[in-house]
Amino acid sequence: MIKQYLNGSNGNMSVRVVTNNAKVSDAINGLGFEVVFCQKSAEATLLQARDMLFDGWRLCADPLAGYKIRFNPYHTVFLCNDEQRDISYDVLRLERAASHMCSPRRPAWENTAEIRADYCELDLSIAKTTAQRLKLYY
């Protein structure tokens, strides 16, 4: 999905990283990407990223990659300033991800400190891999 969004770029692509994971914010900070750290829930972070779409930003990577069956309380979204694309798919994708986060099917046992720490590391791993791939095109 990264290549699909970055193909055809004019080489002046900016990348914005929106995250509620402090570890991601620290790890990505020196890579040349703009980092927006949100001290909010994953749902609120996803909706904040959605709102940035209306300012000309677009998804660089699928916000549900690695999260389809998980209710990770940490979420990192990569946006790029590609104004050539229609935003409707991106808006729907972020809203679907936000709605997934507040599903009533979320097990109560997932909200322990140990599980949250594991989810933090999972989000960090996915974000680092995504950032490394984006650097190939950035």
Structure report:
By secondary structure, the protein is α+β, with helices and mostly antiparallel strands. The chain is 46% helix and 12% strand. The chain contains 5 helices and 4 strands. A 4-stranded mixed sheet has the order 2-1-4-3, sandwiched between helices. The radius of gyration is 14 Å and the shape is globular.
Low-confidence stretches: 1-10
Instruction: Look at the helices and sheets and give the structural class.
Output: alpha+beta
Shape: globular
Separation of the first and last Cα atoms: 15 Å
Rounded radius of gyration (Å): 14 Å
Q: What is the total tally of β strands?
A: 4
Helical fraction: 40-55%
Strand order of the largest sheet: 2-1-4-3
User: What kind of sheet is the major sheet?
Assistant: 4 strands, mixed
Please count the helical segments: 5
User: Secondary-structure element order, as H and E?
Assistant: HEHEHEEHH
How would you state the average pLDDT, rounded? Answer: 83
Percent of residues in beta strands? 5-15%
How are the elements arranged and paired?
Layout: H1 2-6, E1 15-19, H2 22-28, E2 34-37, H3 42-53, E3 58-59, E4 76-80, H4 88-101, H5 113-137
Parallel strand pairs: 1-2
Antiparallel strand pairs: 1-4, 3-4
Helix pairs in contact: 2-5, 3-4
Task: Tell me briefly what this model is.
This protein has 138 residues and is α+β, with helices and mostly antiparallel strands.
Keywords:
disordered N terminus, alpha+beta, 138 residues, 5 helices
